[in-house]
Amino acid sequence: MYQTNSLYEQLGGEEMVSKAVSIFYRKVLGDPLLRPFFEGVDVARVESMQRAFLATVFGGPNTYSGRDMRRAHKRLVERGLSDVHFDAVMNHLDNTLAELNVGKLLRDWARALTESQRRDILGR
């Protein structure tokens, strides 16, 4: 069971998370700084995992069954993934939510929840 009044619920649930992930990856893949990390990657699979991950992190149903963040991003860290890239991803997430007319308070909440994953994603 997921949390009531969670960010997931306040954003609009599965439909909104799915829409956000689609827009978000369009932005990420269009970013010359981030695009190299996705060469040869099954983006549809990554988007599916991202939808499940965000649903879980944002307090929705726990449907994420992938590797933990440290293991999932290990190869990317070995290829140079750093704070600069993480910050770019965070900005794309915020811009995506803004584009979907999500208010600043909820965007800040999403940013804080995502930021809580920085250490693991960057392998620290």
From TrEMBL:
Keywords: Heme, Iron, Metal-binding, Oxygen transport, Transport. The keyword ATP-binding does not apply. Gene3D superfamilies: Globins. Its cofactor is heme. Pfam families: Bac_globin (PF01152). The keyword Manganese does not apply. It comes from the Bacteria. Belongs to the truncated hemoglobin family. Group I subfamily. This is Group 1 truncated hemoglobin. It comes from Archangium minus.
